[in-house]
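User: For my dataset I need records formatted as: sequence, then structure tokens, nothing else. Please produce one.
Assistant:
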Amino acid sequence: MSSGSFAFRSYALQSVTQLFEQCRRKTKQSMTQSLDRLVERQIQKALAQGKLRGIEGEGKPLPDRSGEVYTDIATSVAFRIMAEAGALPKEFKIKKLLETAQQSYAEATDDDAKRVVMALIADLQQRYNIAMEARRRFMAP
């Protein structure tokens, strides 16, 4: 086999690979756009039929779920269902107490009050870390 033939085959393979990759990207983009259009049509249809009136949270901004960004979808959904049912995991309750304590520290004026709140914050932070570690170990494969 001559070196020219090898170079041509190598070039052809590279070209086909690039073409395949371009087609794959365009197909993925096209599918995403088609799905977006379908979802938008269904939303507009439901709005026109009045099916979205009177639902919980209507006219309010969506809840902030930025804390769920680093968890997998199944865990996020499970936590959301538990929260809606009022059964939050222990670390969520501790986190709320910790945020309240931090707010109290920011509002405290004298040194004694700050010292007491700081001790509470340290205790809550330790409890929060223990609860998070326990959940990580429980959820680990």
